[in-house]
Design brief:
The protein has 129 residues and is mainly alpha-helical. It has helices at 2-7, 21-31, 51-57, 66-69, 81-89, 99-122; strands at 43-48, 73-78. It has a two-stranded antiparallel sheet. The longest helix is centred in the last third of the chain and has 24 residues, at 99-122. The structure holds flavin mononucleotide (FMN).
């Protein structure tokens, strides 16, 4: 684990090997174990495998080729919406429409993303943010 972390680097060219759903799900489950704000998990992740959808995402990434050549693109989103809905269902007011929530959800998304990346590299996959 530590050796992999010492020797890792960003990978920008990929083989055509697929990433099985079972492996992807395992990595997502591991990443979801990351510490997060008040156990609210203020993030979501969108998985894109479809070529046409990757092409739609490319402009948001300055058309860098990794977006269309990687077998899987993950969009990590700061997302308080799910927790706000959970609170509303319980007749509570989350009071989350503020800068503090923006920061907290961004931190949660980044911690989740980095845990995912570390786990993916541990399994021998190459990643590029
Ligand atoms: C938030 C974030 C955004 C990044 N965006 C890009 C990017 O758009 N394109 C790219 O090629 N690399 C991107 N990178 C990768 C960095 O360039 C890379 O981590 C850095 O140059 C250090 O290289 P290393 O990861 O090989 O050690 C990003 C990294 C982070 C953390």
């Amino acid at each position: 684990m530590l050796e992999n972390m010492k020797n890792r680097r960003t990978i920008r060219k990929y083989t055509t090997q697929d990433i099985p759903d079972a492996l992807l799900n395992e990595l997502l489950e591991v990443a979801a174990r990351a510490s997060n704000t008040g156990n609210m998990q203020l993030y979501s992740v969108v998985i894109t495998r479809d070529k046409a959808n990757k092409e739609k995402l490319a402009p948001a990434h300055f058309n860098q080729q990794m977006i269309t050549t990687a077998p899987v693109v993950l969009t990590f989103c700061a997302d308080a919406n799910r927790f706000v809905k959970w609170a509303e269902q319980r007749k509570a007011v989350a009071g989350f429409d503020n800068f503090q929530t923006f920061i907290a959800s961004t931190i949660d998304a980044m911690l989740f993303a980095q845990s995912f990346c570390t786990a993916a590299e541990e399994k021998g996959l190459g990643i590029c943010y």
